[in-house]
């Protein structure tokens, strides 16, 4: 470890997740510098100002749609790791800017997909991350690391997959990410706690599934609905298949028969998304209304409250996790849900950030600390499941945010529930 | 009849209903002149041109939001009857312009309501037609007639109420308007056959109900859902209470215990309207999106196909009717549905107009013919139920558009179905 250069981070994006990232990182000592960059210099300044004099953080302006803008900041600040915290539309320029500048790279969402032109609901077109994996050999040859999908989902869910394979199962049938929450916003009939623009994008894209005998394939939106029972009082939530990075990542490093991602949207939210699609209100192609040209999806977003402003009015918990079925290390059938729950009241009190963005932001801080200490090393374009899960889960717990494990009877009610508490 | 002045009509509005009105009236001889006026002179010209040389029709430009513009046309063309066929937002200026110019007046929708400021879902505020009834004494004193609500609903439904009271029932429990259809539009998942803007306005206003012991009162939107069985193959459709003129008109002239209006929106459409409301997309207050100011409701309308263009792609039938319960003239319990069905294929073939607008437009033509021949006379602000129903129903049948009567077992299945065919 003594030979490692001091870590110098460039955080691209000072929005909800970016500013939660800085609040969490500020309590740790593993890095020497963190440049907080945003398209809005004011937003970057505000994020740094909130850290009350921690001189490791400095603000900067960046254009995330321009690789050379990212590269210039990497060179100017001798950055070792670029942390991408902007909209997935900007993954490629940030990824390329990091490479051009000579820095390693981390993100929480991968390069975007494009549906199959003729058979979008049965075959994949360009998949999530394809553009990044296309240059994986080059990154590996150069001894450089791009750690992709290291938020909570993808991210912690992928760490759980590695943990299940190494420590709980001798054979895995399905790696099924299951995400659900019981969040409510006071004073609002309907107020999503995350960007409706991105949610529409995720949920109306054809969901992707992986099977050993079939590879990756797609289905129509909202396929395979199931009611999943979430832990710690969240309870049953209706989940449907959604396109998500884990399905593209987990089968590359973890042996399994099937990989899925189901999002606990709840029946009300599913109905809303279906209705928006039926009326064409999900479209980003402009229409003429009130004498002006406007994108219907932008209008939908404008009618809803800004999720970034809702933290103080929100109550409830959010749960990210992985439901694994197969054969346990004892040779008997096993069904285990590995999960991480954050209570909004706790994250608001402890960090001043709402639980959904806090839960996303904590994982890349943990990963960067493992890279800084040398507990995690690797080269190429790698997912979180390419690394040992134990030091990650231990450090997450040490951050004060424990994870949980529930043993489910197969086709039966829950038979056990264990929480890995912080020590 | 020899003393009556020749009828000279000013039609205000050459949209869907207005141009269907001219197509129907052109086949009748009861009037001498019909001035077809629209805000768009081109639209008025097109409606007149479609009548292929019938010199009784002349085109004009009018501003329906300006009473003096209507008055000027009344004077210029020595108009005896102003026929209002524009959006209900313009009822009052057209009504006042007719009065100022010395003409009688007809419309198919009454002056707009405003909800109760504190208790919108239990008490009425300003009711539909209140502004017109406020000057009823003046119209009566001057020997002038305003025949309000003489489309199909309101209109024919109110005629049915008069007919039921005079010929079928000794005592009426409920006068329940029930409107339903089985229209579908080829090539569209979701394509309303009528203005979504107006439908939102009607359906999200608090519905109004009248009861003998309570007077007029309101409920939350979509109240008292019921599945009503519509005749002639339309079948069961989910209906809910909606604010509509009949509830304000029928109890003024027809003795009953209760008056309601239920619209057969169907469960899918009800779900769409509820979702639009939940997301604030029904609002007409502008929001900022894509860098411009826009009304969300206008964006919803812009995303859907223009209903005026759908006639040729539409299939199915529309039904307007009145379900009457009470005691028959024989002293026994009776439940009768009086109805009028138009098949889109028929109205497109016979008149080139889709069934919903054709069904609305035929009724004021019939009423004007009865006023021209002197079979209907009256003064003041009157609803259709203030006149004898029999000549109206006979003339409607003579126009080639018969009505129907179904006797329903009380709490039982249908026990009879009779159609009053054209002779």
- How many domains is the backbone of chain A divided into? 2
**CATH architecture grouping of the largest domain in chain A:** 2-Layer Sandwich
Strand element count of chain A: 21
| Low-pLDDT stretches of chain A | 411-416
Number of helices of chain A: 14
- Classified in CATH, the superfamily of the largest domain in chain A is Dihydrodipicolinate Reductase, domain 2
Give the averaged pLDDT of chain A, no decimals.
Answer: 93
Estimated radius of gyration of chain A: 21 Å
> Which chains make the largest contact?
A-B, 28 and 28 residues
Classify the fold: give the CATH topology of the largest domain in chain A. Dihydrodipicolinate Reductase, domain 2
Oligomer: homodimer
Write up what this structure looks like.
- Chains A, B: This is Saccharopine dehydrogenase, NADP-dependent.
- Chains A, B: Residues 9-146 form the Saccharopine dehydrogenase NADP binding domain.
- Chains A, B: It comes from Nocardioides scoriae.
- The structure is a homodimer of 423-residue chains.
- By secondary structure, chain A is of the alpha/beta class.
- Chain A has two domains: 7-152 and 361-392, 3-Layer(aba) Sandwich (Rossmann fold), CATH 3.40.50.720; 156-354 and 401-420, Dihydrodipicolinate Reductase, domain 2, CATH 3.30.360.10.
- Helices cover 33% and strands 28% of the residues of chain A.
- The first copy, chain A, has 14 helices and 21 strands.
- Chain A has helices at residues 16-25, 41-49, 67-76, 91-101, 130-133, 136-141, 156-168, 196-204, 245-253, 266-278, 296-303, 344-351, 355-373, 389-398, and strands at residues 7-12, 31-38, 57-61, 81-84, 104-106, 145-147, 169-181, 184-185, 208-211, 215-218, 226-230, 235-241, 258-263, 287-289, 292-294, 314-315, 317-328, 333-343, 380-382, 403-408, 414-420.
- In chain A, the strands form four sheets. In chain A, strands 7, 9, 10, 11, 12, 13, 17, 18, 20 and 21 form a ten-stranded mixed β-sheet that branches.
- In chain A, helix 1 packs across helix 13, helix 7 packs parallel to helix 9 and helix 13 crosses helix 14.
- The longest helix of chain A is centred in the last third of the chain and has 19 residues, at 355-373.
- Chain A is globular, with a radius of gyration of 21 Å.
- Chain A starts with 6 loop residues before the first strand and ends with a strand.
- The model of chain A is unreliable at 411-416 (pLDDT under 50).
């Amino acid at each position: 470890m003594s030979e490692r250069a001091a870590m110098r981070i460039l955080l691209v994006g000072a929005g909800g997740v970016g500013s939660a990232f800085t609040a969490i990182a500020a309590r740790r000592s593993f890095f020497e510098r963190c440049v907080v960059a945003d398209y809005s210099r004011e937003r970057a300044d505000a994020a740094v100002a909130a850290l009350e004099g921690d001189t490791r953080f400095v603000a900067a302006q960046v254009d995330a749609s321009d690789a050379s803008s990212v590269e210039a900041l990497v060179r100017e600040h001798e950055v070792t790791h670029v942390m991408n915290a902007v909209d997935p539309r900007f993954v490629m320029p940030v990824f390329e800017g990091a490479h051009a500048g000579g820095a390693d790279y981390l993100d929480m969402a991968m390069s975007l997909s494009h549906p199959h032109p003729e058979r979008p609901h049965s075959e994949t077109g360009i998949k999530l991350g394809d553009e990044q994996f296309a240059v994986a050999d080059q990154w590996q040859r150069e001894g450089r690391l791009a750690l992709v999908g290291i938020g909570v989902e993808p991210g912690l869910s992928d760490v759980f997959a590695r943990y299940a394979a190494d420590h709980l199962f001798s054979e895995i049938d399905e790696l099924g990410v299951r995400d659900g929450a019981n969040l409510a916003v006071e004073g609002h009939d309907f107020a999503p706690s995350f960007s409706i623009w991105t949610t529409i994008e995720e949920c109306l894209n054809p969901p992707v599934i992986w099977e050993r005998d079939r590879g990756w394939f797609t289905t129509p939106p909202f396929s395979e609905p199931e009611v999943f029972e979430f832990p710690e009082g969240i309870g049953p939530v209706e989940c449907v298949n959604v396109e998500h990075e884990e399905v593209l990542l987990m089968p590359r490093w973890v042996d399994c028969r099937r990989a899925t991602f189901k999002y606990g949207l709840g029946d009300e939210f599913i109905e809303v998304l279906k209705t928006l699609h039926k009326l064409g209100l999900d479209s980003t192609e402009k229409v003429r209304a009130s004498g002006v040209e406007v994108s219907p999806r932008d209008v939908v977003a404008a009618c809803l409250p800004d999720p970034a402003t809702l933290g103080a009015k929100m109550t409830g918990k959010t749960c990210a996790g992985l439901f694994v079925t197969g054969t346990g290390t004892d040779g008997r059938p096993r069904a285990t849900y590995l999960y991480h729950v954050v209570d909004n009241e706790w994250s608001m009190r402890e960090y001043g950030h709402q639980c959904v963005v806090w839960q996303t932001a904590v994982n890349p801080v943990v990963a960067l600390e493992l890279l800084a200490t040398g507990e995690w090393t690797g080269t190429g374009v790698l997912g979180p499941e390419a690394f040992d899960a134990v030091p990650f889960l231990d450090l997450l717990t040490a951050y004060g945010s424990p994870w949980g494990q529930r043993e489910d009877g197969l086709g039966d009610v829950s038979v056990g529930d264990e929480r890995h508490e912080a020590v």
